[in-house]
Write a structure and sequence with these properties.
This protein has 3 helices and no strands. By secondary structure, the protein is mainly α.
């Protein structure tokens, strides 16, 4: 995959995620850690987005399903983004 196609794929996944996400579905398992660095944060969202775009193959797929619905999707990506934003604002709802 060349860089231009990879970026287009990542943007399509992001836009699809934003359009399909509802705050009422926000229920994240904070024990999950997609990239395996010991912290659930924005780096995990990037890692998950790379997986969704077909750029990487994770070693533990179960860590990618942060909402435990049995599906690894753009919703997991958005839930990590919301979780990280919530924590970075000191718990303020954004």
């Amino acid at each position: 995959m060349n860089k231009k196609n990879g970026l287009a794929t990542i943007m399509a996944i992001f836009l699809s995620a934003v359009s399909s996400f509802s705050m009422s579905t926000y229920a994240i398992d904070t024990t999950k850690d997609p990239n395996g660095d010991g912290v659930l944060n924005l780096n995990d969202a990037v890692y998950l987005l790379q997986y969704l775009a077909g750029v990487i193959e994770p070693t533990d797929y179960s860590e990618l399903d942060v909402n435990n619905n049995g599906i690894i999707s753009n919703v997991d990506y958005l839930e990590i983004l919301y979780y990280d934003a919530y924590n970075s604002t000191g718990g303020e709802v954004i």
